[in-house]
């Protein structure tokens, strides 16, 4: 580890601040202190993730349900809350819709149609992100009640 870096950061910089992180060398970024920071960020973010689940069957004949899943998180960048997932999750859902019988889709415990709620999908720009409209009142009401999600 770079000798000028300590677990409290470079002198004069706030530990774990953007400025502190930007001056780390590649070796420092792999250090225990950086790993602990990464874990804390991962854990904090994980508290805001909800499952996107759907079930499928063969199209021609009813078969046992196969379950698919991805994850969704919520952001508010100043213009209202929206949901975010990986673009490849949406792509897999759309492929299932085209090739199989989708028997249901939900975010948390609430029905959700990704195609109807789609804001944007970065596929044409080679960005693996898809965003969706959500109802902020349902998110807030259910989040405060300790439920996973919303609609």
Describe this structure in words.
The protein is an alpha+beta fold and 151 residues long. The chain folds into two domains: 47 residues, no CATH class; 96 residues, Thrombin, subunit H, CATH 2.40.10. Helix content is 33%, strand content 28%. It contains six helices and seven strands, in the order αααβββαββαββα. Strands 5-4-1-2-3-7-6 form a seven-stranded antiparallel β-sheet. A hairpin with a 2-residue loop joins β4 and β5. The longest helix has 15 residues. The N and C termini lie far apart (47 Å).
Quick overview of this protein structure:
With 151 residues, this protein is an alpha+beta fold.
Number of domain modules: 2
- Note the run of SSEs as H and E: HHHEEEHEEHEEH
Biggest sheet: strands side by side, in what order? Answer: 5-4-1-2-3-7-6
CATH topology of the largest domain: Thrombin, subunit H
Largest sheet: 7 strands, antiparallel
Q: What gap, in angstroms, lies between the N and C termini?
A: 47 Å
Number of helices: 6
Question: How many beta-strand segments?
Answer: 7
- Under the CATH scheme, which class of the largest domain? Mainly Beta
The percent range for strand residues is: 25-35%
Give average pLDDT, whole number: 80
């Amino acid at each position: 580890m770079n000798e000028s870096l300590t677990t409290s950061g470079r002198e004069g910089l706030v530990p774990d601040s953007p400025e502190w992180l930007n001056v780390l060398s590649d070796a420092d970024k792999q250090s225990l202190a950086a790993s602990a920071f990464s874990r804390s960020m991962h854990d904090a973010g994980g508290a805001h993730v909800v499952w996107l689940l759907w079930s499928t069957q063969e199209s021609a004949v009813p078969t046992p349900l196969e379950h698919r899943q991805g994850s969704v998180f919520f952001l508010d960048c100043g213009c209202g809350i929206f949901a975010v997932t990986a673009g490849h999750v949406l792509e897999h859902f759309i492929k299932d819709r085209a090739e199989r019988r989708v028997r249901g889709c939900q975010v948390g415990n609430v029905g959700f149609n990704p195609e109807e709620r789609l804001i944007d999908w970065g596929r044409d720009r080679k960005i693996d992100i898809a965003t969706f409209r959500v109802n902020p009142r349902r998110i807030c009401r259910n989040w405060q009640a300790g439920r996973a999600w919303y609609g």
